[in-house]
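Fill in residues.
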């Protein structure tokens, strides 16, 4: 078997080429790659170099294990190549065979990344609304349907500003809000990205509060500002 393995210089060449491809196609997706110059420095860099050397062909995991044994003695016999998937590499194959598509991250990785960064990943208001299920971030009213609280008025989602003090056109300052929430909260509150109020943004809510609450606020402010 060993005589059919790629040579060290072939693998080093593959490793250098893969690093370049990673930088162009996968780094933008934060797919992880070992930061080593020589392919044989880590188990993962060996796996990747071998997978890339065989391009989109299927490689049996024993071939990868054989290269590991040859080039980095001391590594476990059974190399868990599939773990690369967790780091975003687009690996496919079954029955002990693997093949690598080096030009795109794994679909699971992209989905997970979108889920994590979905709000800020939205390219425009349509996508942002989609992230919120085309519903008001604050009350959950669905766009295009009548809102029972307001008779027959059809819900229209508007650009709600999470923090009225921040620039209105800042992407990370926008949440979709129905016209009712947008109007009701005016510029009195700061919202989190779940559409929940978490701070006051103006004196209105304090002015409307009971004397008791106002006194509480007054005392707290006195302790802060003297
Ligand atoms: Zn609403």
């Amino acid at each position: 078997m060993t005589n059919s393995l790629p040579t060290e210089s072939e693998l080093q060449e593959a490793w250098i080429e893969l690093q370049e491809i990673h930088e162009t196609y996968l780094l933008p997706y934060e797919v992880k790659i070992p930061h080593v110059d020589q392919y044989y420095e880590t188990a993962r860099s060996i796996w990747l170099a071998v997978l890339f050397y065989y391009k989109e062909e299927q490689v049996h995991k024993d071939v990868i294990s054989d290269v590991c044994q040859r080039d980095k003695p001391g590594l476990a016999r059974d190399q868990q190549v599939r773990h690369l998937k967790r780091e975003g590499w687009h690996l496919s194959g079954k029955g002990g065979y693997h093949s690598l598509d080096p030009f795109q991250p794994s679909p699971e990785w992209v989905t997970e990344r979108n889920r994590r960064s979905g709000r800020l990943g939205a390219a425009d208001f349509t996508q942002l609304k989609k992230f919120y299920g085309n519903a008001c971030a604050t009350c959950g009213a669905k766009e295009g349907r009548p809102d029972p609280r307001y008779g027959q008025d059809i819900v229209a989602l508007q650009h709600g500003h999470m923090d009225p003090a921040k620039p209105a056109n800042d992407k990370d300052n926008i949440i979709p809000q129905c016209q009712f929430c947008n109007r009701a909260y005016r510029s009195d509150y700061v919202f989190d990205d779940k559409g929940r109020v978490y701070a006051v943004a103006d004196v209105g809510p304090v002015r409307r509060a009971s004397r008791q609450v106002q006194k509480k606020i007054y005392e707290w402010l006195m302790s802060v500002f003297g």
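Residues 2-109 form one domain.
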